[in-house]
TrEMBL record, chains A, B:
InterPro entries: DeoR_HTH, GAF-like_dom_sf, HrcA, HrcA_C, WH-like_DNA-bd_sf, WH_DNA-bd_sf, WHTH_transcript_rep_HrcA_IDD. Keywords: Repressor, Stress response, Transcription, Transcription regulation. Residues 104-323 form the Heat-inducible transcription repressor HrcA C-terminal domain. The lineage of its organism: Bacteria, Bacillati, Actinomycetota, Actinomycetes, Micromonosporales. This is Heat-inducible transcription repressor HrcA. SUPFAM superfamilies: GAF domain-like (SSF55781), Winged helix' DNA-binding domain (SSF46785). NCBIfam families: hrcA (TIGR00331). PANTHER family: HEAT-INDUCIBLE TRANSCRIPTION REPRESSOR HRCA. It comes from the Bacteria. GO terms for molecular function: DNA binding; DNA-binding transcription factor activity. Belongs to the HrcA family. Residues 17-62 form the HTH deoR-type domain. GO terms for biological process: negative regulation of DNA-templated transcription.
DNA sequence: GCTGGCACTCGACTGTAGCGAGTGCCAGCA
DNA sequence: TGCTGGCACTCGCTACAGTCGAGTGCCAGC
């Protein structure tokens, strides 16, 4: 049962009005606010069909209609054009991001910017280590049996980790260790390092072997296994924007979900190149976020992707505007990274 | 007009009951639940006095009494004994904190632990740079005109920053720069470094002068001026615990305040040695937090203090329990830091 | 100085009624 | 066939009146 153009127009009008007013929209108001060219009665008939098909629903018998998740999906896929950003917004993005001095700085500014522009919760993943390459590994002696391992990645990320050596290691040996790990791992993608680290141990001279073994363990742990991903979050206060009307009465589950880094990574981490991902309500795999929508995308210098970013808000959100903003911010950040 | 012992007992009973039930408490219920040894009528007289003195108030004429901020203050100062922690709690703390591998790790575990134990919002300040000493400064060449400056502090903090040199600097000169800054700044308290950095520039050989000047600028910026403080936060979902009943109807201002790092620092950063600080409702300088209470203290290895930690919750909180937990966690973290 | 008793207050809850936005259906018209 | 105007109906929302009861303040008496 196809939906003709007018029915689609009605759906679009319902979504737009509901997003704007946050109130169920009735046939009469629709006809008044949009030039549909037909009478309320006709709109009612169309609405009945849209409801049968699951695109809208009535909260109460005597109330207007509200889009369902399915309705929003159709709207996003077929009924909305991405709004161009206003010059003011473009300027805001530029002004916010220039002057960033640090990767940390870039990420923090970005997440705040996103939250501010979209008036929603923003999430930015630091450049993924898995997608980074080793630029340099530094070993700083803290004491004779302790080293600080510092890894600098090409994406600007810097990770450090304390290494407890099994026995004292003289300074010259530390120099050797440093040279060896850099020769072997420098320039390599982090995801490719495990076998190289293994080889490093096997190839190292016997007097270096114990220290190298410990170092290798830490390297693998730090760089590949353990919390390799970092996340920044901002704008949680925006959750309270629509009263508690959104999120079906309780922010609790949403706030809980946002505290779990793993959850956040799921939200914005799985990115394919140059795709905007929009997950609406029920489409979210995370139960706590069934009442929320997530708009996310990848970012990175040029065409490569090093991490994800996005925003989270009520299903009742301004999708075209949000999508446009997320995309624009992702591009700017990518350009910024490309400059370094 | 002094308050005799019974009146104080009545106040204590009111606070305890209200914290437990979250409902205004009346004279009759009080007499039933606590062995006050007098009749409701007598309690009513005492309540009238307590109300006159501003320790309690009536939300409505025909309702029970609720403690005021002033009432809580008196309760905390004179009426409550710190509850000893349960063995289960002690064990939880130990189990949670052992196995931390990193300063980051310690801080993250601590903040989550605090949030979990107190069921409130937890805030932990990273060891303050101002209270740290330089353990080592590392300069890693990224290109001929770019260095990565890495500072490792004795408290375990590691800060890095990109340095854009005015002109290419050969590797040997980088080695010299590294040696010079470490000789001058190694072991120094960060707060003492500015004049030393200045001296460093003045004393450096002429061919190193331009690079050293840039380096000095970055050193001062990174280590002393700019976002030198870091903060970890957890448990915001706990704000929704008491319904929206706490926080006079809106989480908004609270969530907003928690997004501002400056605000958080104000909350837990200003610490004197071995003091528990309890700020109740109106006592908070931050307007957005007039409906909240903050329990905070300093922590650090041994008797020295390197940072602050604490929790934030509704004024209607279990002060004795919260104070005990915050104190215990601060001690454990201090011990943990002392081991490194 | 404590107590029991008593009149009073006032919020919470219940039930009723009217309003009005919005609907579904139907007959009529192009 | 498809759109329209009309009409009866639903039902949430608001206002209002009435009842209930927890809790109070006050007072006389022990």
């Amino acid at each position: 049962m196809g939906l003709d153009d007018r029915k689609l127009a009605v759906l679009r009008a319902i979504v737009e009005d509901y997003v704007a007013t946050q109130e169920p929209v009735g046939s009469k108001a629709l006809v008044e606010r949009h030039r549909l060219g037909v009478s309320p009665a006709t709109v009612r008939n169309d609405m009945a069909v849209l409801e049968d098909e699951g695109y809208i629903r009535q909260p109460h018998t005597s109330a207007g209609r509200v889009p369902t998740d399915r309705g929003y999906r159709l709207f996003v896929d077929r009924l909305s054009r991405v709004k161009p950003l206003s010059p003011a917004e473009r300027r805001a993005i530029e002004r916010f991001l220039i002057g960033a001095v640090d990767l940390d700085d870039v990420v923090h500014r970005t997440v705040r910017l996103l939250a501010q522009l979209t008036r929603q919760v923003a999430v930015v993943q630091y450049p993924s280590l898995a997608r980074s390459s080793v630029r340099h590994l530094e070993l700083v002696p803290i004491s004779t049996t302790r080293l600080m391992l510092v890894m600098i990645a090409d994406t600007g990320r810097v990770e450090q980790r304390l290494v407890e050596l099994p026995a004292p290691v003289p300074a010259d040996d530390v120099t050797d260790l440093r040279r060896l790990v850099n020769e072997k791992l420098g320039g390599q993608r982090l995801s490719d390092t495990p076998p190289l680290v293994q080889a490093l141990v096997e190839e190292s001279a016997s007097h270096l072997r114990p220290a190298m073994t410990t170092l290798a363990t830490v390297l693998l742990e730090t760089l590949v296994e353990r919390h390799e991903e970092r996340i920044a979050l901002a704008g949680t206060a925006n959750l309270t924007r629509g009263g508690i009307l959104d999120f079906q009465g309780s922010l609790r589950p949403v706030l809980e979900a946002l505290e779990e880094e793993v959850v956040l990574l799921k939200l914005i981490g799985e990115v394919e190149p140059s795709t905007m991902r929009v997950r609406i309500g029920d489409e979210n795999e995370i139960d706590n976020l069934r009442a929320a929508s997530v708009v996310s995308t990848g970012y990175g210098p040029g065409a490569t992707i090093v991490g994800g970013l996005g925003v989270l808000g009520p299903t009742r959100m301004d999708y075209p505007g949000t999508i446009a903003t997320v995309r624009a911010v992702a591009r700017y950040v990518g350009d910024l990274l490309a400059q370094n």
